[in-house]
Structures are given as C-alpha cells and as structure tokens.
Amino acid sequence: MTYIPISPKERDAMLETVGVKSLDDLFEAIPAAHRFPELNLPPALTEMEAAAHLGDMAATNENVRDHLISFLGAGAYNHYIPSVVDHMLRRGEFYTAYTPYQPEISQGTLQAIFEYQSLMTNLTGMDVSNASHYDGATATAEAVNLAFAQFRGKRKKVVMSPTVHPQYREVIRTYSQGMGIEEAGDDPNADLEAGPEGLMSLVDDKTMLVVVQYPDFFGRIYDYTKLIDDAHAKGALVCIVANPTALLMLKTPASMGADIVVGEAQPFGIPLWYGGPYLGFFTTKKSYVHKMAGRLIGETMDNRGNRSYVLTLTAREQHIKRERATSNICSNQGLLALAASVYMSVLGKSGLQEVANLCYQKAHYAATELSKIDGFGMCFTDPFFHEFVLCCPKPASEVNQYLLDNGILGGYDLGNDYPSLKNHLLVAVTEMNSKEEIDTLVEILKEMK
Amino acid sequence: MNAPANLKYTKSDEWFDPSTGAAGITDYAQNQLSDIVFVELLVDEGEEVTIGKPIASVESVKASAEIYAPANGKVTAVNKGLSDKPETLNSDPFGEGWMIKIEGGDAGDAMDAAAYTAYCDGRTH
Predict the structure, then answer these.
(1) Taking the model in full, what pTM does it have?
(2) Which end of chain A has a smaller Cβ tally under 10 Å, C or N?
C-alpha cells in the first residue's frame, strides 16, 4: 500500500470524473475574494504574552465549580469526581494508549475496557457491553443501526418517544439519513402525558425499534415492562436510553425486558467540560452481539496459563469486514471508559447508591419547596428521579436570565424543544447541590418580580 | 481438497447441487477460513435469489466472509440449525453444512469439479 495520497495523474482523473478542468475550476463556487482572505492578524506574541492573554480570556468564563450554583442537567450532570479518577487518567500507560489491536502490548488497556464492560452489564443487567461510543446520542443512534441490521432492512420504522432527549432524536435522524428509515412518535407537539403505552398505537409489523428514555427527558420514571411486552408481540426490539446514576436506585432495564440499553455515562466521573468529550455506553442481549458496533474485549488464557485479555469480537468493523463494514467506531472512548470504571470502582455499589439517593432526596426537597412559591408548580405528577419540570409564571428564558444575574445557572428552557412548554424549566439537582443552595434558589425565585 | 463430482462451483467458493438445489461453501473455503464461529443466513424461504447475491455471512477466528448465491431461483429451504452449530461448515461443508436450497436453480456458467479443482490449485495464498 502506498501512502502518497494523490499523484497528479490521479488528481486529473478525479477532476475529469467530477467534470472540471482544473483545481481552480473546482473552487469556482467560492467567490474569488473569499478564497484567500486577508487574515489581518495582530503581531505575534511571545509565549509569556500569549499565556497571559489566553489566561485573561479564560478568566471571563464562569463555571459551576468556582462561580455558579447550577441546576442545569438535561443530559449532562454535575457530580463529584474523586481525585483518584484524574490521577488514573493521567498515567502515561493509559493517557497515550492506542487501539489495543496487539494484546501482547496492550494488557492494561484491554483489562480496563474489560472491567468497564463488566461494570456496565452489571449496572444495566444486560448480557454484553461494547467498549463505548462517543456519547449517549451516538450510542442511541447505534441502537437503530443494530435493529436495522437485525431485520436486514425488512423493517424500517423507528418509534421514538417524544420524551427521549431531543438532541438524541436529532442524532438518530442524522445517522439514519439515506437508510430509508421512517421515524414515528417524534413529535414535539405530542401529548407529553400519554405515558409509555401511548406509543403502542404507532408500533406495527414494520417497526424495528421502539426507543424510550429512563428516566425520560423530563425526569419521569416509568415501568416499561408492558410496553416492551407489547412491542415484542409485534416483533419489534426495544431500546432504553438510561441514566446510569438512576439505575442504582431503579429496576434494571433488563428486568423490564429491554433488548438494548444505552446512555450517557458522563455522570460517572467525567466533568461537564464544554459538552464533551463524553461517554456513550451500549449494552445488549447476547443474541444481538454480532450486530453490535465497536468492539468487545474478552478474557482468555495465554499459552502459559495466565489470565489475559484480547479483542474478542469486532463483528462490524473495517479491519474485519473490510468494505462490508457497517460501523466505523474504531475509536472508542477508551480514556473516558476508564474514568467511568475508576469512578464506579472507587465509590462501590453502596457509594453509588448513596449518590443516587442523595440526588433523589435533594431533587424532591427542591421540588417541594419550589412548588410552594406563588406562580410556580410541578408540571407533571409522575414519580421522578433527580430532574423535574417546573412551571414558571413567565417565559423560562426570563427566569433563567434573572437567576444568572443572581449567580445561579437555572434549568433547561424546554420551550426550545417543546412549543407547549414555553414557561417550563427542566431543573436538575444532584449531590453537589447543598440544602443552602436549594434554599437560595427558592428565596431568589420568591423575590422575582 | 475435496470437490464432489456431482456439484457445480463458483469462483467465490460456493457449491450448488443441481439435483437437490442445495448450496453452501466448499471444502477449500472452509479450510481457508479455518475455525468458523458464526454464521448468519441472510435470506428467508420464499425469497428469489440471483447469482452473486449475498445469502450468508460467515465469521471465522481469522476472517469474515460473505457467501453469495451460486444459482438463480427461489429459496425453498434454509438450514436454520446452522447458526447454532457454525462448526458444521468446517466438519461437513457439502453435507450437514448446506445453507439454502434453491428451487429450479440455474447455476449459469459455474465450474464443474475438475475445473474448480484446477482453479483452486492455481491460486496462490
């Protein structure tokens, strides 16, 4: 294989194929004045000057650790991260590790992924976990790919609950472009109180997958057992998008009969950062393992009888399937999967349960106190975990601006995604929010004019 | 290498039995793939297949391969038990390892056993 990307001959052949004579012709659509614009850069800075300049710019940011009290969640949650997580991530052996194709030099990385998989299957109750995806949204979109492959394109309908994270649904639509997939249920004007059974009217013998969220985007907890039974009776698979922290407190998706359980594992030891990089987890039943994207690490024995780890299955990847590959998730989020594994190991089962319980209790305290304020109230009455929809007396964007002026990062403005919820905030409370912070929020909202 | 005389063969190493309509992979193919650990049949009974259409996906410890229809016609049977015992493809590729049956199958210009044997002998690997 040659690594010279393009010879003049190949370039000419490509230009001829697209029907232009020269490279200049190819760029004709871009106005000449914009092809090589004058950049007008300031004079170069010394390293010391540049560091000071960048430091000043960074100092204008406000973050939830040093500046703001946060009640914002909507898929990314502010949890405490034990310092050992970062110490592990920064070890050179993990920090710079490349894809572990060669087990003889990758035992540490392989074992870390194996531990991650074991922890995720334990958490969800499912049979197998892959070595991770970019984030919860792409993991969810991969569930659609799995279902599409399982039915070999003979079923092409995906029924999505309108209370699956709006951005996840957007990513599903992006991923499934060109596959001829029909999406149903994904209507922001749908009845948001219909509950899971409301979806069943959309499930037919062309439905390959039903996607629901647990707790749903509004924080509500539903038992999906009946929906899953009914969907199975129609021959469809069911994917549950789960919050990993909530799973420490709730019935496992596996016990409800889910075929695929995916989600965002950012709450497990990964900072909020600027919206990423995050960690998508993907777990399923053993019977679908050959349709799963990414890789599966397995434990085996070397020729001296020692325990060792290998890439056991990469059923859809390019290095196995070549041009027939149906996945190119070669880069799993190895380092962040390690963060999640260390987080889970350090907290242990009881520690994780305590985190979940603190989130639950504090969120319920906040909901109770906020509901007492004139003009505010709970939008839904269903059981919830650590996030809830608060009905406000004015548009949510105004409430948020008022809170921000008072040093509080408010909830998620649901009017962005759901026209009927313009005056509604999605409020998240985690173990990081002290009782004083919640009381401050309540006091400040009481004084809102 | 075993290549029964009553069968027809493709360049992509499938066999077809004109008398029974059965089709599968050759002894040469299973030997090249080595231990087969997974097989998925991609067609159902009643489907029409044409020569070259993928009928199965096979994975071994060494490689993954697509298996193509060696004849045109209607699928009258699929070997459902195969996915539970993929190793059958190694132990008995021309017998228990049959994949599908193609009714009235027309194998086009498939090779006879002698031509296929010569074809395999001529391949370097």
Answers:
(1) 0.88
(2) N
